[in-house]
């Protein structure tokens, strides 16, 4: 049984096929990486998998059931979380509140209870706050618990997004270039973090340009080129695939 | 919060006559509207240039129900607020999908439609001449006199601020702030942004209508002037001037912009020139608004020594 399955997935933008009849399966518990040159359609694919784009054709199955979600928040409720390549932090809130906002799906709160500060809500808020603090510690940001989000350095914001996504308790976590713009020691931390997330039983989909990171943490790799599947398999097969070497690895990346 | 309660409680010591009381009451009523509007503009990050329309629905709704149909004022007031919320809910569904300038245009249009209806349906509203409104009464007891009104409005302002602060610190308030910060990130975190925007829109409309109804009953007379586009702009300016995403900023903004024109009457015909200059200078030197700028300054002072 697969956690997520895509069948004939396509997305067109005014005649340009960003994603072209793509089939793939993601097994639960794995770290599944998606690589490919710039413009290969990786972020477009993540946007389809989180409901930000509606595919022009094709279907998605979650747990072998057709995914009926429409709006992005319904994809989130179905258990799919993500981070963004170009940061999407709530800069008008504190670091802790960013993570607390990530727990939205697990909080039941009526308007009346919110307005009147119901005792039940006060207790729930305390639990939410301590859970968010735990998650900040999990990604290594406990020092920033009281900071405003806009006071955090770039590398910390990358991890703040991961903590916020984890707060929703997703089954499938999509990470869009978590190592982009980071220095080698920060990349090692992200590497360790991805392995710890995977250790929690969360299936991770990693879109990344850093081959060392991808080849180190992934169980399975999907290579995209012009929206089409160029290759798929474990790191060894992909690394030795001549088409991949020609289209991507040989293009001066590594 | 305590500062606000103390302010409301102690202000009468500085109010020498009924005219002073009248201004304080108008400040309070405007502040109530602004605290509600701030939930929408400051926290959820959605503009509305039509809130005078909701204010007008409250004012005229309550006025018509009491004066023409003999409803008890309290019931009329609640019904008018509910009607404003219902209208906001119905209209908000399509127009809150718009963003930025387009949302501004749509809410502007809504406000203008309401103001035209008020001005032309003279059988009900008295048209441009306005209409008189019965005083607020409950079970035979009539609320009269500036002092009684001062305490009522003061208590309602404190209540509105308390409710607003509670909301902001709740999961609902966090969702509003989140969709302001990044709508796409809020959505992928599971926040139904359309529903939350609608909630803020309807809630702020109901609060504006409530203040509108109270204004009508207090003044005893209502004209279409309070329902115009200009009044909508005034309300937004109060929120921005006081400081967006600051509940106390909304109160201060309403206080300054309601009281300032009264003080500036010494400038006679140059009144509006001075008023405009004050606004421009504030926005140039305090772009975040009065209260957040001063709060940040105070925080830096505290850290410095």
Q: List low-pLDDT spans of chain B.
A: none
Counting helices, strands and paired strands, the structural category of chain A is alpha/beta
Number of domains of chain A: 2
CATH class of the largest domain in chain A: Alpha Beta
Q: How would you describe this protein?
A:
The complex is a heterodimer of chains A (about 250) and B (about 300). The longest helix of chain A has 20 residues, at about 120-140. In chain A, strand 7, helix 7 and strand 8 form a beta-alpha-beta unit. Chain A has about 250 residues and is α/β, with parallel strands linked by helices. Chain A folds into two domains: about 1-80 and about 170-255, P-loop containing nucleotide triphosphate hydrolases (Rossmann fold); about 90-165, no CATH class. A six-stranded mixed sheet of chain A has the order 6-7-8-3-9-10, sandwiched between helices. The relative contact order of chain A is 0.18. The mean pLDDT of chain A is about 95. Helices cover about 40% and strands about 25% of the residues of chain A. In chain A, helix 3 (about 95-100) runs parallel beside helix 6. Chain A has ten helices and ten strands. By secondary structure, chain B is mostly helical. Chain B has one domain (about 1-260): Orthogonal Bundle (ABC transporter involved in vitamin B12 uptake, BtuC), CATH 1.10.3470. Chain B has helices at about 1-10, 20-45, 50-65, 75-95, 100-120, 120-125, 145-170, 170-180, 185-190, 195-220, 230-240, 245-265, 270-285, 290-305, and strands spanning about 130, 135-140, 140, 220. In chain B, the strands form two sheets. Chain B has a two-stranded antiparallel ribbon. In chain B, a hairpin with a 2-residue loop joins strand 2 and strand 3 (about 140). Chain B is globular. The mean pLDDT of chain B is about 95. The interface between A and B is medium-sized, with 41 and 29 residues.
């Amino acid at each position: 049984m697969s956690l997520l399955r895509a069948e004939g997935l396509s997305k067109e933008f005014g005649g340009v096929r960003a994603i072209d009849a793509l089939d793939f399966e993601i097994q639960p518990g794995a770290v599944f990486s998606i690589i490919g040159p710039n413009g290969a359609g990786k972020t477009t694919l993540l946007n389809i998998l989180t409901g930000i784009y509606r595919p022009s054709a094709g279907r998605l199955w979650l747990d072998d059931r057709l995914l009926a979600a429409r709006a992005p928040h319904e994809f989130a409720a179905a258990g799919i979380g993500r981070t963004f390549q170009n940061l999407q932090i709530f800069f008008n809130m504190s670091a802790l509140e960013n993570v607390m906002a990530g727990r939205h799906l697990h909080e039941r709160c009526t308007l009346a209870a919110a307005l009147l500060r119901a005792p039940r809500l006060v207790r729930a808020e305390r639990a939410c706050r301590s859970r968010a603090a735990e998650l900040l510690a999990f990604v290594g940001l406990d020092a920033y618990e009281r900071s405003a989000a806009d006071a955090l350095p770039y590398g910390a914001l990358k991890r703040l997004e991961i903590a916020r996504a984890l707060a929703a308790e997703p089954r499938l976590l999509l990470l869009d270039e978590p190592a982009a713009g980071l220095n080698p020691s920060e990349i090692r931390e992200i590497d360790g973090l991805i392995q710890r997330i995977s250790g929690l039983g969360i299936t991770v989909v990693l879109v990344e340009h850093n081959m060392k990171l991808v080849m180190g943490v992934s169980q399975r790799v999907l290579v995209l080129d012009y929206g089409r599947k160029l290759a798929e398999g474990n790191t060894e097969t992909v690394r030795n695939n001549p088409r991949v070497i020609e289209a991507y690895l040989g293009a001066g990346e590594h | 919060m305590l500062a606000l309660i103390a302010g409301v409680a102690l202000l009468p010591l500085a109010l020498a006559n009924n005219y002073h009381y009248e201004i304080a009451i108008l400040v309070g009523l405007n502040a109530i509207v602004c605290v509600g509007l701030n939930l929408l503009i400051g926290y959820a990050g959605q503009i509305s240039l039509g809130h005078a329309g909701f204010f007008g629905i409250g004012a005229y709704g309550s006025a018509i129900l009491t004066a023409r149909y003999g409803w008890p004022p309290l019931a009329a007031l609640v019904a008018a607020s509910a009607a404003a919320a219902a209208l906001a809910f119905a209209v908000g569904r399509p127009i809150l999908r718009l963003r930025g300038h387009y949302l501004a245009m749509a809410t502007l249009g809504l406000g203008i439609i309401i103001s035209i209806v008020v001005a032309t349906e003279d059988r009900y509203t008295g048209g441009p001449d306005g209409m008189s409104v019965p005083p607020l009464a409950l079970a035979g007891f009539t609320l009269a006199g500036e002092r009684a009104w001062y305490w009522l409005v003061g208590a309602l302002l404190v209540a509105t601020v308390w409710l607003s602060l509670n909301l902001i610190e709740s999961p609902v308030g966090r969702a509003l702030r989140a969709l302001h910060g990044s709508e796409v990130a809020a959505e992928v975190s599971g926040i139904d942004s359309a529903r939350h925007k609608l909630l803020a829109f309807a809630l702020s409309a109901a609060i504006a209508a409530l203040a509108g109804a109270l204004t009508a009953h207090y003044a005893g007379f209502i004209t279409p002037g309070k329902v115009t586009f200009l009044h909508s702009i005034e309300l937004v300016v109060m929120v921005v001037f006081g400081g967006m995403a600051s509940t106390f900023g909304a109160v201060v903004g309403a206080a300054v912009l309601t009281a300032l024109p009264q003080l500036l009457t010494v400038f006679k015909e140059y009144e509006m020139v001075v008023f405009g200059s004050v606004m421009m200078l504030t926005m140039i030197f305090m772009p975040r608004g009065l209260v957040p700028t001063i709060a940040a300054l105070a925080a830096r002072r505290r850290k410095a020594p």
